[in-house]
């Protein structure tokens, strides 16, 4: 099912999920400066995830009825910085440090526990409602697919820049609005009878999914984290092609047609190419120029693995207990 390629890309402010997210929402809605204490906040909890995501969204499509000038408000940016410090230091503490880039990429190709991921579950046992939940979770990223990665373009040069832009050109439809991957995702949502509106399910999506998108924005918006961003991008491309292939199998087993498989089928082929370009041309060239950034590439890869594993655990635990993996709205 094709959806309008000129959708309205803005949404309402999110439902606060604790004092930090309430502080950001109140600031944007009423102009009241945030006084919530960030110290001691759960770095991977829903409250901090929603607070940070709301700050970041001002750099993407913004919110209906929120003045776009808030994007560069010193008050908002100072609060965001505190949230980012908590999130980034927890991410660094959660993953092993290292600088062997080739080894971490090779590890990604070997599955630690074969068959234990969400896409494996969907392929082998998933039901239609579970597949639709998966589509809802991922919509938080795919509605802005490849946008966070575009933020790194001005921070690269030479072959790394040229190659990353070549991948982004594909993600953004190669010059065709109807082939922009975010648009293919809206079409997928329409084909599965879901609301394809921009971030329409945000309030139902749990913290682990939001944290993945926040990581991308954090890496994209800070030049010092450019190597973490390309490490993350390469990791995502390496793991997407096999997981998209499993989702295609799940959809076919469940009787979904080509309008449902299209988005995933597109990623099976494209990402096998993107993986090589990211690994060899983007990461390779960046590290030829700035070898001291190897540890940050490793950090980007491992942070991605860590947050994706948390997402998988959240979803599979809920499904194995026979309940929804979405949050109550
Ligand atoms: Fe894509
Ligand atoms: Fe891709």
TrEMBL record:
EC number annotated for this UniProt entry: 1.-.-.-
Keywords, sorted A to Z: Oxidoreductase
Species of origin: Actinophytocola glycyrrhizae
Record carries keyword Oxidoreductase: yes
Family annotation (InterPro entries): Haem_Oase-like_multi-hlx (IPR016084)
Pfam families associated with the record: Haem_oxygenas_2
Protein name: Iron-containing redox enzyme family protein
Keyword Ligase: no
High-level lineage: Bacteria, Bacillati, Actinomycetota, Actinomycetes, Pseudonocardiales
């Amino acid at each position: 099912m094709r959806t309008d390629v000129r959708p309205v890309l803005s949404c309402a402010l999110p439902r606060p999920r604790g004092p930090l997210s309430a502080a950001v929402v109140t600031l944007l809605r009423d102009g009241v400066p945030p006084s919530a204490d960030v110290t001691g906040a759960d770095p991977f909890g829903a409250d901090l995830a929603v607070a940070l995501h709301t700050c970041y969204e001002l750099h993407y499509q913004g919110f209906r009825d929120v003045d776009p000038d808030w994007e560069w408000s010193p008050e908002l940016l100072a609060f965001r910085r505190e949230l980012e410090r908590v999130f980034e230091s927890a991410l660094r503490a959660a993953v092993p440090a290292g600088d062997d880039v080739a080894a971490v990429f090779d590890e990604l190709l070997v599955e630690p526990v074969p068959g234990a991921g969400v896409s494996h579950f969907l392929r082998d046992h998933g039901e239609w409602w579970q597949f639709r939940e998966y589509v809802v979770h991922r919509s938080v990223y795919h509605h802005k697919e490849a946008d966070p990665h575009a933020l790194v373009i001005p921070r690269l040069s030479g072959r790394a820049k040229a190659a990353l832009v070549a991948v982004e050109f594909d993600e953004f439809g190669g010059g065709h609005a109807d082939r922009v991957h975010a648009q293919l995702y809206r079409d997928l949502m329409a084909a599965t009878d879901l609301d394809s509106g921009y971030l329409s399910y945000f309030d139902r999506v749990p913290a682990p999914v939001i944290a993945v998108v926040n990581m991308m924005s954090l890496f994209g918006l800070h030049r010092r984290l450019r190597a973490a961003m390309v490490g993350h991008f390469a990791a995502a491309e390496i793991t997407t092609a096999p997981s998209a292939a499993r989702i295609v199998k799940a959809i076919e087993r469940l009787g979904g047609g080509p309008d449902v498989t299209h988005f995933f089928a597109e990623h099976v082929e494209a990402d096998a190419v993107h993986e090589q370009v990211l690994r060899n041309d983007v990461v390779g060239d960046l590290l030829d120029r700035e070898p001291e950034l190897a540890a940050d590439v490793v950090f980007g890869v491992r942070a991605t693995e860590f947050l994706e594993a948390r997402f998988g655990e959240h979803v599979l635990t809920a499904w194995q207990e026979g309940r929804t993996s979405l949050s109550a709205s």
